[in-house]
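Prompt: Have a read of the protein record below and flag anything odd:
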Amino acid sequence: MSSSTHPAARGSRLALLVVGLCWLAVLFDGLDMFIYGSVLPHLLETKTFGLTPDTAGDLGSYATFGMLVGALTAGTVADRIGRKKLMVGCVVLFSLASGVCALAGGVEVFGLGRTLAGVGLGGLLPTAISMVSDYAPRGRTAVTIGLLMTAHHAGGILSAYVAKWLIDPVGWRAAFWVCVTPLLFAPVLARFLPESLSFLVAKGRTEEATALAARYDVEPPAAALGRKSAADRLDALAGLFRGGEWIQTLLYWLASFGGLLLVYGVATWLPTLMRAEGYALANALTFVVVFNLGGIVGMLVAGRAADRFGAPRISAVWFALTAAGVFLLSVHMSTAITMTVVFLTGVFLNSAQTMIYATVSIRSTPDSRATAVGWTSGMGRFGAVFGPWLGGQLLAAGNGDRGFTAFALAGVSSMVFIGIAALRSAKQPPVPAGQELVGAH
């Protein structure tokens, strides 16, 4: 019997290697994103840097503002240097930025570190999704993207355990030193991750792209259709506001704003708000684990639910259930019931936002889809900046008990906006499988 490996099987394993490398990169992305929220209760209780709730909210917004900058510039930078180099650069940037936080002697330097980390975090996730889309096993693109998104929540789980294990015996700085360790992963990424097939095609390196596609047993890239000029991109954006489309566009943007306000507001303040509700710090950090476990489950089931019932309907229902769950967290219940509510809130919250992107994708024409989804995500990121700040302001004013209520209202607003947008939109055939899960936090 021959011991040689069938080329298709070998190619599939290589493709899974690429997906695995991207998964680990996003895991580190999630760890770095959630670590601030996990150590925040300790920072506030010990008054590190003289930290107050409103200052803590500002610091949380610095990272999400950096993510906004990173997400908006990632495409342009990737077009110039390639997606592989950008991914490696993002890992290096947010790892070194965590080192800045670990060494910080004051709130200004700590804030600079969080801002720089946000730039790296914001640039990595959309780039990783693009890479996975290129190298996903044949016919498994949507499932693979959903799997990739679970890494972000796995990073959130890891952040809670890092905080629980290190803060008391070693100190909060050790948690940020752990976030520097992905520097060791950067050379591995640079060595084994191939360049994006789409980038190679766009640069006219079609022979190299075709050879890589054959080696990894993935769909070869389509022939380059020509890169859009700045005028073309502006015209595509203007098309979102022509006729009555401006109402639809604004509804999508407002829904995305509320959704990401909710996602990042809860991600930043969940442990602190649960601490304020009277739960022990260990339990408050356990809630982070349970919340992100729910996020993993939600990412795996949302696509299937949307395929069956429609992404707009699922998005609206998911936001309604999220709002109910977040509001219930303001009520002190038994630990077991609270854990259940936190888990279900994680299931619905994290995938509700993704369903907004899916809705926009389904309701857009093929030539405007990329622009519509990109701008919906971009406008939503302003909500990501506002959410952590809002939580800090409420706590600073002595209204921490209203924090969950405020975030619940954001969920209700997104439910209303996406619901109205879905009702106004003319019914269109769904996009092919593989284009449903198109968004990223």
Observations:
- Confidence is low (pLDDT under 50) at residues 426-438.
- DSSP finds 16 helices and no strands in the chain.
